[in-house]
Write a structure and sequence with these properties.
Elements lengths: L4 E4 L10 H15 L3 H18 L8 H15 L6 H7 L1 H9 L4 H9 L5 E5 L3 H8 L7 E4 H4 L6 H11 L6 E5 L2 H10 L3 E5 L11 E3 L5 H7 L7
Parallel strand pairs: 1-2, 1-4, 2-3, 4-5, 5-6
Helix pairs in contact: 1-5, 2-3, 5-7
The structure holds magnesium ion.
Magnesium ion binds next to loops.
Length: 230
């Protein structure tokens, strides 16, 4: 398949994942509260995902607001109150990562070489954060954030926002991303063919194409079956 546009996730796909930043933020909260880090880490993620799923349209809130609220909710459930201004400081490692993440070498090489169709970033992120990361990413033609679409992947409306921007039908597009839920399931729900980036090269992918590095993407795209009328 030769797509008319490549949609690509950013965090964890083109740039390194957020795990070290999450762990640094959780460690800050552990030092402040004495709570268990593993419990906090898991509960924070679960609450954040719930809030993202409920955040769309008129009730949309930025990723930064939702991360802060998710941690505040978790702490309150555990009987701890931390003032919002202080919580912002404790979670700063994550906010800094969103602004400063650098491209992975294979992704950078791919972006520098790829000429066959436009590359559009489709990212769960706040616009100002992504713009700072975009400065380090060559060969990107456009970007759609959750803030632009007022919804979070896997909500198909994020992908539909990007389709409307490019004027393309879903059959003409491939979406590449590292999250099974947000990228693979989200793209499928919008009728877009996904390519799953699993950098560990593990995990069942069924009918979904899987790559361990962007070095494999051109060959992977060439193997994908053509869909619809080209
Ligand atoms: Mg990602």
């Amino acid at each position: 398949m030769r797509p008319s546009a490549l949609f690509v996730d950013c965090y964890g796909t083109l740039v390194a994942g957020d795990r070290p930043a999450i762990e640094a933020a959780v460690a800050n909260v552990v030092r402040r509260t004495g709570l268990d880090g593993q419990v906090l880490d898991r509960a924070w993620w679960q609450r954040f995902r719930q809030l993202c799923a409920a955040s769309s349209g008129d009730s949309f809130e930025t990723q930064r607001a939702l991360e802060l609220r998710a941690m505040a909710d978790v702490l309150r459930d555990l009987g701890v109150e931390v003032p919002p201004a202080e919580l912002t400081v404790l979670l700063e490692p994550l906010f800094r990562y969103w602004r400063t993440a650098r491209p992975l070498p294979d992704a950078l090489a791919f972006l520098r070489r790829w000429r066959l169709c436009p590359v559009v970033i489709v990212s769960n992120s706040d616009r100002l954060d992504l713009e700072q990361v975009l400065a380090g990413l060559p060969g990107v033609d456009a970007a759609v954030t959750s803030e632009d679409a007022r919804a979070y992947k896997p909500d198909p409306s994020v992908f539909r926002h990007a389709l409307a921007l490019t004027g393309l039908a879903p059959e003409r597009v491939v979406h590449v991303g590292d999250s099974w839920e947000s990228d693979v399931a989200g793209a499928l729900s919008a009728g877009i063919t996904p390519v799953w980036v699993s950098r560990e090269g593990v995990g069942p992918s069924g009918d979904v194409a899987r790559i361990a590095s962007f070095d494999e993407l051109p060959e992977c795209l060439a193997r994908l079956p053509v869909r619809g009328v080209s």
